[in-house]
Design goal:
Oligomer: single chain
Strand content: 5-15%
Largest sheet: 5 strands, parallel
Shape: globular
Radius of gyration: 18 Å
């Protein structure tokens, strides 16, 4: 009986959220995935360091970068922001040392945010791509232009799996049109 995968080697990537990991990926000549959804202020400096320090290797002859971005796409900007509230409150609680189950969008909308908490959420969401398809398309195009990423990895932190799937499907449809316009 054969063994599935025998002889195949998965690609090795380095995932990071800092300049250090970017430099290591470059020096090793590995593809680099950057956690923009996690550390947006470091995205452009880290990608610059990766490309600056890149050395060709058996794995790659030129730098290859992926950017992981938080994206929520829904039929309207307002509904997308409503859905994104779950992930925002969940992350706020995590940062405050109170992790737990993800709240529903209704719970997130009703949560009594302090001024500081509201500012934290707004700052975090300002670097995410949240909206209707046209808004998300502009956000993806802008991120790709700024980062010159070869690939985009999408993370969608919403309460209902059906809303997550719908968002992924809308983004996939957009990706086909964005990819066509980049070629």
């Amino acid at each position: 009986m054969g063994r599935p995968g025998r002889g195949s080697q998965p690609d090795v990537w380095l995932l990071g959220s800092s300049g250090y990991s970017a430099q290591v990926a470059g020096l090793l000549g590995l593809p680099f995935a950057f956690a923009h959804h996690f550390s947006p202020a470091n995205t452009l400096p880290a990608l610059a360091l990766y490309r600056q320090h890149f050395r060709p290797s058996p794995a790659l002859d030129r730098p290859y970068a992926m950017v992981a971005a938080a994206v929520v796409c829904a039929e309207t900007d307002e509904h997308a922001r409503f859905l994104a509230g779950s992930g925002a409150l969940s992350f706020l609680r995590l940062r405050a040392g109170r992790p737990g189950r993800m709240p529903s969008p209704g719970e997130a909308a009703a949560y009594p945010y302090t001024e500081l908490e509201r500012a934290f959420v707004e700052d975090r969401q300002a670097t995410q791509i949240i909206g209707a398809p046209a808004t998300v398309r502009r956000g993806i195009e802008s991120l790709l232009e700024a980062t010159a990423a070869d690939e985009l990895m999408i993370t969608t932190m919403v309460y209902d799996p059906a809303d997550r799937l719908a968002s992924f499907e809308q983004v996939a449809a957009l990706a086909r049109t964005v990819a066509g316009s980049r070629n």
